[in-house]
Amino acid sequence: MKVVDRRRNRKNKPKKAFFQTNGIRDIKSGKEPVTFSDNLVKNILSLDSTQYGVIEFDNLIPEEYSSSIEFMKHGTKKVLGKLEQLTLDVTPQDLIAMNMDNTSSCRYSGGLFCIDEGFEFEIKLLNCLEGLQLLYYLHKDRRSALSVDLYDGNSNNVGLDAKVSLSSRTKDKSPYDSIRFSRVPILDNERKNDILYALRVEHNCEYRDYDIRRESRFTEDVDLIRRNFCPHEFAAYYSILFSYLEDNRDKAKVMYDMSLFPFPTQLTVDFYKKMMNQTLIKETKDKNPRLIKEGEAEIMLWGLVHKLGYEKTFKPERKILEYNWNKENIPNYDL
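User: That's the sequence. What structure does it adopt?
Assistant: Structure tokens below.
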């Protein structure tokens, strides 16, 4: 049987210009280097448009992992919430806020929302940001395509079913990704937590294929299925939510409160843009500074949360479709 590393294959697919990050030459071009080895969050945010950052830091990804991919799969995860902790008054967003305000300095490779002892949703902060960027593109670029079909006739008992079709981020792929959500709570009633228990997402995607897995818990003889939310699914969920914002704000609020992932602020978007387009990293073993790896970026996003807290990083202060995604002249922040 031939085994295909789908995640590695997708890395080689050329992205549309809007989604491309700067290469080493573009990062350095016309800018002065600023070298630092600590206070990574503060130093990245304080970079101005005439500078680029060089992080001198060995083993930002812990040494026990042989690669960024291995770390992203097996590294320490932050528990963002458990379904059993929900009540009619305590929502997933309440749990996410509480747990993100209690992050440690641990190098996290993602977050988890536990549905039961055998099923978890995995949330990468990088995927949250890439999904939000895709949503912005779908709404602002006239050449893009987005359709949202809602089926909520029996939402009181079984929640919302929805099908979302959206443009791909890559140049050589068929123009649409099709994503189906089932059992999405949209009504503030006593069944909303039971409906959330049955939440499922159908989507044929390299991100998803790579990250669904069964693991053995030796202390409890059970299989664990961990399902990763990919950027396309974040964008699709955001799109459904915005469809209700136009017609039924009460349903949109329930969708927001019951979502299993956080929503980035403009500050977090700016940090992400500076990290990916204005910063390099250099370990002792490196002859020259290099681009930041996926696992290193995820670690630094969790470091941002640890330093600044949930409210500044993942509690939107304004409409997320109004965010600025321009990677030039990003404002600098003095912390």
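Confidence is low (pLDDT under 50) at residues 1-10.
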